[in-house]
Amino acid sequence: MSTFDFQLFVIGGGSGGVRAARIAAGFGARVAIVESFRYGGTCVIRGCVPKKLLVHAAHFSADFADAEGFGWTVPPATFSWPKLIQGKNDQIGKLSGMYESNLDRSGVSVLHGLARLIDPHTIEVDGKRFSAEHILIATGGTPFLPEIPGVEHVITSNEVFDLPQLPKRVLIVGGGYIAVEFAGIFNGLGAEVTIAYRGEQILRGFDDDLRQYLHDEMIENGIRIQLHSQVSRIERQADGALNVSFVEESSDNKTVDCVLYATGRIPSIEGLGLAEIGVALDPKGGVKVDAFGRTNIPNIFAVGDVTNRIALTPVAIREGAAVAATLFGPAQTAADLTTVPSAVFSQPPIGTVGMSETEALKHCKEIDIYRANFRSLRHSLTARKERTFLKLIVETASQRVLGAHMIGADAAEIIQGVAIAIRMGATKSDFDATVAIHPTSAEEFVTLKEKTTRQRHD
Fold first, then answer.
1. Is 438 a catalytic residue?
2. Which of 114, 126, 193, 274 is 20 to 30 Å from 405 by CA-CA measure?
3. Which of the residues 215, 379, 438, 457 is marked catalytic?
4. Do 243 and 296 belong together in one domain?
């Protein structure tokens, strides 16, 4: 019989930590979990779920405008930000409560408070100490803010969901998925939106065609995008508005009601005591782990965003389950993250899986590129100019499909099924042999014929 209070102690009540705790308890382990804020983590409380609710809300302005083309007469619509936020809060409260109740039903000891590691087997929570045979760090990430004058006036993705009112003029700093998603949200709800990004194009790391298509669609939707642009100073005016200055002489100062910083996230490790007990960290503060989530201290594990690997909720869930199986299941288990699909809930949305064109050329001598660019049937009766774009990347020699990318309505829903095929090693002929569903945008993935061949020049 173990002399420890718990066989597994999980620090962090987000998706990865909760999954690990529940599965470990299912294997019969004595498990405790602690959370310093609310159970559900970034995804449920201030990430994927509330963001998607706001994305749905923002779509209605376009839906009302498009309805006329289908014979509907829609009276002038009004929008209430407080009502949307209250609905969001009610739903998040339900989900957070479900996380706790599910843990309790699984036999996990649920704790609240700030945790700190005293040594590799001792955790202190608000002054009370617990011993554990194994410890799992699953504390997620936190928004990064640069050190510039006036940064205290900005908000991040932590605060944006609780604004008391909808700002009329918004500057979003950053060019990643959080930046473009909130640009679409605020624009759809009626705000004047500008993105300022220091890079050459938004969505660094995504396929270049997708980046350009989304850039063009956002411009078409009325969002202003300033590339190669960096904020130098933010000052609050007497009327409460914010005056924003830029490093570039070519960029005029902007006066806005809200500055949202979406310049990335960093591992949330402050106050945990990891460095003090010798847990190895990477240069950006992420916890270093092996394929099984184990740190350099054999009984301490880490999963999710705190490890600086793939910052996606389903990835954290897989990693948490793998750690629980490794510790208490029949065999060591590593999360298979070789082909991870993802989505950007921009307007229009993006769905992607596998390699980008640039990545494929790093791995293959020659690749075939298939593209489709069209106006969907829905918009044949509307004034909207939005176009859908699809792309398949195929290794020429083997004809294996290496990547699939889409921007357009329902892209995230469509790419999930495509991801199964790509993970199984489907070839272009497998796609070609699949009967299409007509009329849909998804059918383009199995009807693509024209290709462009590209070669790597070493």
1. yes
2. 193
3. 438
4. no
What does DSSP say about strands 242-246 and 31-35: parallel, antiparallel, or unpaired? unpaired
Q: Can you give the pLDDT at residue 252?
A: 84
CB atoms within 10 A of CB 94: 9
187 and 233 both lie in a single domain = yes
pTM, rounded to two decimals:
0.95
Single-letter code of the amino acid located at 414: I
- For 119-173, the pLDDT digits (tens) are 999 999 999 999 999 999 999 999 999 999 999 999 999 999 999 999 999 999 9
Number of independent structural domains in the chain? 3
SS3 of residue 78 by DSSP: coil
Indicate the range of 2-6, 16-20, 348-352, 428-432 predicted with least confidence: 2-6
Question: Given pLDDT bands bounded at 50, 70 and 90, which one contains residue 250?
Answer: confident
Judge if 137 and 272 occupy the same domain: yes
Q: Over the chain, what is the mean pLDDT?
A: 96
Assigned token pair, 431: 């796609």
Q: 286, 137 in Cβ contact below 8 A?
A: no
Q: Are residues 237 and 129 in the same domain?
A: no
Is 443 domain-assigned? yes
Cα–Cα dist 34/201, whole Å = 40
pLDDT at 225: 97
- What region does 205 belong to: left with phi over 0, alpha with psi -120 to 50, or beta? left
Q: How far is 318 from 310, CA to CA, in rounded Å?
A: 11
- 3-state DSSP call for residue 151? helix
Is 335 part of a structural domain of the chain? no
Residue 91 shares a structural domain with residue 228: no
∠ CA 79-84-88, nearest 5°, is 165
The pair of structure tokens assigned to 44 is: 């449920």
- Dihedral sign for Cα atoms in the order 421, 424, 425, 429: negative
User: What one-letter code names the amino acid at 330?
Assistant: P
Query: Are the C-beta atoms of 245 and 167 separated by less than 8 Å?
Result: no
Q: What is the CATH number of the domain that holds 205?
A: 3.50.50.60
Asked, for residue 1, whether it belongs to a domain, the answer is no
Does 2 score more than 80 pLDDT? Answer: no
